[in-house]
C-alpha cells in the first residue's frame, strides 16, 4: 500500500481516492458497459447483450487484474476476459465491440481525469476565494513590497492577495475548460473506426458525460499535453502564494491559522500548509515534461510513450490537486498582522493605486 | 557568436533573428519610446519630451549593454542611462516614466515573443497544410497500421497524415490565441502603478499592439507558464509526424524530397528534415519545465526565477519554431510510396472508415 | 490503494514493496530504535531506556500516522509521540534523543533507498547479464546497422547487445557506489549536533549499515541529486535496449520469449516487456529534474523543496527499478532471428571489427 | 548574434567563448587533423597526407558551414568537403579516414566540454574557496538557524558557509573526474571500427588529451547522461548558497560586496550576483532532463535524440558555469553583519558543535 502515509500531508487524499486502483477498475468497467449500450443503441450488438453486460458482476480485484495485465500489456485485456466469462459464451462476443485496449484505457483515463479534476477545481476555487477574501479585507493594509529580496516601496497586502487570486482563477478557468472537453477515444485496432458507426462514438460520449472528439485521437496526444500543461500552470499558481506565505511568515507578517509544531522545538510555528503546498507543487514541472515528451509516440499506438502517460497523469493530478488543497487550507483563515507589516514601512506611506488594483482584480474574477 | 552554426540545421534561423541581441535591444527601446509617448498622451510628461525620446539615437551596442547590465542586474538600467544621456539633462527625467526595469523587460519580451511567434505560427500552418495535402492525396492509400511497433490492421496513409494535421492545427490555434493576447506589463517599482494613470497602460498596449492586462502581472506568471505550455504542446505535435516519417522512411514507405547523404556512406538517404525536427522538438519539454518552475517566484519581483525566464523562453521559441520549420520542409513534397505500403498488407484489404475520417478531419480544420 | 494495478506491468512490484507505507514506517521506527541504542552506547540516555524503546510495540498504522502527520508536517512527529506513549512517561524523554524530524526522515529514506536499491541493482545486473549472453551468442551474427533510421553497413547483433551490456554495467557500477555510501543524517534541530557526541553518529551509521557522513548534510543535498542522477542514467541505459528491441521486433529480427497478444488482434506478438520497460524509463528524466531542482532549499531546512523529495525519490526508484526489471525479462530469452537479420544485408558481408569489439566489451565487464 | 547581451549578466561569458560557433569549428577541425595524424602514425594514410591536412587552411566560416550543414544533417559533412578541397584531389581521400560524422561530432564535443569544463571547475573552486574563507572567518559567529522558514535555534554563519563549501567541493570533485575521462569516439559508419586499427583510437585519444573508451560508444550515451547529471548537481550546489544569500540579504545579515541598484529605486541594494546565479542555476534541471531523455536513441545512430544533445549540452555548460561564476562573485567579499545576526538570537546563545563541524568540514576538503 502506498499513499496513505503521505497523501493527507500533501493534500492529495481527495484527488487520490478518485484515481486509485479501484477507481481505474470502475472506470474501465464503466467504459465497457457504456460501449456495449451505445453499440446496442445503434444495432451493433443485441440490446439483451448490452443489458447482460451492464448487469454482470465480474470479479475484478485490482491486484489480480494487475498481475494478469503483464502478459498482454494493459489491464483491459484481462478485464475483457473476466467480463466475457461473467456474461457467458453467448454474450461474450458482444463484449468490447469494435474497440481496442487503447480505446478503453484512454476513455477510462478521461473519466478518471474528470472525477479527480472536480476536486482539483474545487480546491483551486476555494483557494482563490480565500485569496479574494484576504484581498478585500486588506485592500488598504500597507506593507512593504519586496523586489529581488529587498525592501522596495509600499504596496498593500490586499494587492498581494489579489495577485494570488488572479493566478488561481486564470489557471482554474483554463483547466475547467479542458476538463469539460475530456473526450472519449474510440478507433478500434487500427484507429479506423472499423465496424462501428460514428454515431456509436457520439452516443458513448453522451452516456459517459465526455466530449465527442469527432475523430479518433489515439495517436494525436495534444489533448494530453494540454491537460498536463494546464495542471502544471495550476500548480505554479499554487506555488506562488505558498512561497509568499512562507516568506511572510518568516518575518511575522502573516501566520497560518493552525501552524505546525516540531518534533524538537515546541516553540516553532511552522506554516505547514504552505510548506506542503510548495512540496506538492514542485513536483509538477517534471511530470509535465514527461507528458509533453510522451506526445512523441510512433505510429498508431506508441510502444512506451503511451504507457508512460498512465501513472504520470495521475501523479500530476495528485501533485496539483494536493497543492491546491493545501493552499486552500493555508489561505483560509490566514492570520494577517498589519502591525508587523507596518514596521518596515517607516514614513513612506503611499501605496499608489494598490487599492484600486485590488478592486479591479476582484471585479474581473470569472463567474463561479 | 553562437547560433550561426546550428540554427539553420535545426530550423531556428527565422525565429532566432527575431530573438537575438539586436532584437532584444530594439524591443527594449521600442518599449521606452512608446511608454514616453503614452505618458505624454496622458499628460504625465511633456509631448516635446516624448518626441525627443522617440527621436533619440542612443548608442546601444548589445555587447556593451551586456557588460553594463551586470552591475544592476538587467539591461534596462544601462539602456535608460544611455537614453537619458542621448536626450540631454532637460528631457532625461521624462525617460522611463513611472516604470521599473521589469515593466520594460516583460513588455519587451512580449513584443519579441510576438515577433518570433509569427514565424512559429507560419511554420506550424505550413506544416499542417502540407500534412493536409498529404491526407487528401492519400485519403485512400492503404498502409498497415502499426501498434506497439507491430503490424496491426490496415489504415490509409491519408488518415495518418490527417492525424498529424489535426495535432498541428490544434496546437497552432491555442498558440495563436495566446500570442494575440501577449500583454504589456506596467506596474512601477512596487507593482502599484504609482504615478501612472491606468489609461497610460491601455494606450501603451495599443501603441505596441499588445493586450492590456487590466492589472500588473509582474509577480503572477501564469501567462508565461501558459505560453511555455502551448509551445511545448506545439513541439510535441511536430515531434509526432517527424517520428513517423523517420520510421516510415526506415521501411521505405516514404522518403523526403531532399534526403541527406552521409560523410561516409554516399548511398544513404537520410530523412534529415524529420531527424532535425525531432532534435529540435525533444528540447522543448525540459525548457517548459524550467518555465513552469519559474512561476514560483517570491514577493513582488522574483530573485532568480524571473531571470531564468529570459533566455529559456527564447530557447523554447527557437526549439519549437525550429521543429515547425523543419517539419514543414519534411512534409512539403514528402514522397509517398504506395507500392511499398502495400507490401505488408497481404490480402487484408479493408481500411475501415479511414477515408471518411480523413474527410472529417480536413473539414474540421480551423480557418486560416 | 494504488500500485497493485500497474506495478506488475511496469516491473515495479519488487521495488515498490520496499518503498511502500509499511516500509516507511518500519524504516522510521528502525532509525528511532537504533538512535536510542547509539545514544545509550555513548551515555546520552540510559541503556535500559534504549532497551525499552527497542522492545516497544507502538501502534503505527500508516493511515493513522498519515492523518496525524498533517498538523506538524511529517510522520516523525506522531511516530515519536506514539513511541513515547508506548514506553511510558519514564522512558519517554529518552525517545528521539538529540534528533529532529529531518534527521529521522533523511536517515529512514537512506535505509529505504538501500532496500529498494538492492532490487534495482539486481535487475540491472540481470539485464546486463542477459545482454552479455546475447552478445556472446551472437558475436558473429551479421545484421545491418541502422543510422538515422536508415540501413547503413553491417554490424553484428552481438555488438548491439554488447553496447546494451556496457551501458547497463556502467550505470549499475555508479549506482552501486552511491547506494553503498547512503549516509545517516544526524544534526539536531539546527544542524549543530547539539547534545550528541559525534561518536553517536558513527555508531548509528554502523548499526544501520549506512555511511557516516562526517558532518550533517540536512541542507546540503548534493547526495540526493547524485542519487537521482544515477537513477536517471540507469533508466536511460534501460530505455536504449528496450527501444532497439521494439524496433527490431517490428522488422522481425528479434522477438520476446513471451510476447503479448491484444484485446482485439490475436495475431499480434507485442514485445510487451520492452514496451513497458520504455514506459517506465520515460518517467525518469522529469523526476530527476524535480530532485535536482529540490537541491535549492533555503536555510537550514527547506520549506517545500525537502518535502518534494520524499515521494519523488520513491517514484524514481520505482521507475528505474521497473525499467530494469522489465528489461531483464525482455532480454532473458530474447529470440534472435539471424535469417531475418540477413535479409537486408545483401552481398555486403563484412562486419568489420564487430566480433573483436564484443570480446573487448565483455572482457571489460565489472566484477560482480 | 546572441549571447553578448545576457552572457555577462549570467556569468556565462567565460564558458560561452569556449563553446561558441568558432570553438565548434576549431574543435571539429582539430579532430580531423589529429585523426589524420593518428591514422598516418599507424600506416592507414601516408604521413605526407597527414602533414598536408594539418597544414591546410580551409575556409570554414561558421555561418557558411551552418547553411551547408542543412543538407546532410551535420557540419562535419561540409567541413570534410572543404578540407578535401583545401588539400587537393591527391590528399583528399586521406581526409576523414575510417570515420563517420558522429565520430567527429562526438569527439569534438568532448574537446569542447573539456575546454568549457576547465572554466566551470575553476569557478566552482573559486566559489568553494570563498565559502571556505567565510566559514573560517565566521566559525564562531552566531546566527539563528531557520527551519521551514521560521527561527529555530542558533548556529554559526561559519557552519552555513561550510555547508555551501561542502556541496560545491563534492560537485566539483565528481565533475572533475568526469571531465578528465571525456573520451574520443571512433567507430566508423556502423560503429564497427571498420578499416581502423584500435591503436589509432588510442593514439588519437593521446593526441587530443582525451580518454580512450576501449570500444565505440556512439549508441551508448551513459557518458553524456553522467556528465549532464554532474552538471545538474553542480548547478544545484550553486543555487543553494545563492538562495541563502538572497534570503539573508533580505534581513540584512549579509550583503554583497557590490550590490546592484535599480532603474527606479536608487536606495536598493540588490544581491545581483546571487540573483543571477540562481537565474542561471534554475535552468539546469530541465536541460538535464532533456539529455537524460536523449540517451534513448534507436539503433546505431539516433535520429533526433543525438541531435538534441548538441546545443543542450552547451546550454547546460553555460547555465552551470554561469551559476558558478556568479556565485563566486557573490561569495568573494561577501559582507557579513554579525550585529544583525545577533538580533534574533535573544538570550539563547549556545551554538552547539557548530564550530567543531566547521573545522571538520574544512579539514575534509578535497585537495586542489
Record field, number of beta strands of chain A: 4
Question: Largest beta sheet of chain A: what is the strand line-up?
Answer: 1-2
Give me the strand/helix succession of chain A: HHHHHHEEHHHEHHHEHH
From the alpha carbons, calculate the radius of gyration of chain A and give it in angstroms: 25 Å
Q: Mean pLDDT of chain A, rounded to whole units?
A: 96
Oligomeric form of this entry? Answer: homotetramer
Helix coverage percent of chain A:
55-70%
Give the second-level CATH assignment, the architecture of chain A: Up-down Bundle
**In DSSP terms, counting alpha (H) and pi (I) runs of 4 or more, how many helices of chain A?**
14
Instruction: Supply the CATH class of chain A.
Output: Mainly Alpha
Main sheet of chain A, how many strands, which sense, barrel?
A: 2 strands, antiparallel
Assign an overall shape of chain A. elongated
- How far apart the termini of chain A lie comes to 37 Å
Low-confidence stretches of chain A: none
CATH superfamily of chain A: Fumarase/aspartase (Central domain)
